[in-house]
Amino acid sequence: MDVVLVLHSHLPYVLNHGRWPHGSDWLSEAVVHSYLPLLEQLLRLEAESTPAPITLGITPVLANQLGHPGFRRELEHYFEHRMAASAEAMRTLQASGETELAPIAEYWERRYRRLAEFFAQLNGDLIAAFRGLEDRGRLELMGSAATHGLLPLLGREQSIRLQLLAGRQEHERLFGRVPRGCWLPECAYRPGLDQHLAGAGFQFFLTDAHLARAGRAHEVYGNRDLGRELLPGPDSQPPQHTPYTGYRLASLRSLDVLVRDPVATRQVWSRYEGYPGDGAYLEFHKIRWPEGLRLWRVSAPMSDLADKQPYRPDSARRRAGLHARHFVALLSETARDSGVPDGVIAAPFDTELFGHWWHEGPEFLGQVCQVLSRRAGVRAATASEHLARHRPAQSLKVEEGSWGANGDFSMWMNPKTRWMWLRTWDLEAAFWNAAPGAISDASAHPVLAQAARELLLAQASDWPFIVTTGAAGDYAEHRFAEHCDRVEALLGGMGGGNIEGATRMAEEFRRQDDVFPQILGTVQAALIQ
Length: 529
Hints:
It is built from 18 helices and ten strands. By secondary structure, the protein is α/β, with parallel strands linked by helices.
């Protein structure tokens, strides 16, 4: 049986919107804790000739930031700051007599220095590194919607087309090839999206088990309390399909679907039932200020922060190896019990789980690939490799919903966020009503292009998600409103006849939100499809 490990990488556009806490430091933290360690593992496995055919999704808006000229400067600043903070922590811990914690601060200083040197060896070009791995047949890169907009809730069909077409185009510009697979933002689907996916050239996507009637919805991050704050979950229904085979979409048989395996993914996602809650691993929530270092281990998942014990990197690394072997054994058991010859176990995760939330996650992934390469009965494969070897014969109707809490759209559409969607829908209508006339007027092209960029950025699913969770809600509301205000200002200037003033405004906005350079042609394509 094939094992398709899928990593979904995404952050909203934060470059040129400050540094800390939600500006470029947010991006730098994800790079340092997740993307660079993942690249380290993949290149190490390649040097050892160990197969690691991961299917890696990088959203176009994230890829655009990683390829931006200003990104390298921001990450180098972040490294300098973190290394200085680690060195300062070593001094203050020794001076205060907390000698058991000083070696952990030293561990962070060495780690930051090693990753900074690794980034320099890559010439500061993560896009080229990932593209090279795909060119050498080591992994598959998936595409996605341009800014991770929640497609089922967008108000106009043209907006869905723009998200998907701009996403495909940006992926091709940066990675040099058209992606076969599309990561649907938040695994969110509704009837009708199939036509837009096929129209953008995508050949497959992944769906959650409950949307395929192949299992129950469960909370992606294992956040039990958050689920109770929202709407009741869907009624339990007996599975009608197996998650252990690929399908052709019943409504459009040119599209293939892989189903998320609820058993394997829960083992890795859940901090209550899965590996990340193990006592040896780094505790995410306890931080030493002012240096901002995590120096303690989980100890016990539900223990008070005051009771956390010092972190032991070597012990955590050994534990990651043990869990990797356990995970592959679980995959083998699942394959044996599935009753599906030539089947597939599709296990999708957010990339940021590995390294950012679960510090030892990249080490775990690397060891999983090593163990899989020696295990009979299961083999790692990319999504496209599996689908090429085993063409799906069964058809599947995908239900409406997402992989969010409750299995529906309530993480993004709820009483806290409804006002955001009302404003989005009004802006969509105004933009698409103005677009045909602006396309035919060359003087309006720069204004229309920037209005499209700002509309796409306003549509990011991150903003309502952050408002719902209550974490940094003010920031999300500010960013959402900023992009909406700009769309209104640009359309107003264009419609009011002040095209010169609107053009200057567009140029000013472009200096901050410089994304999707080919967007004008994509707007036109979205109009005529």
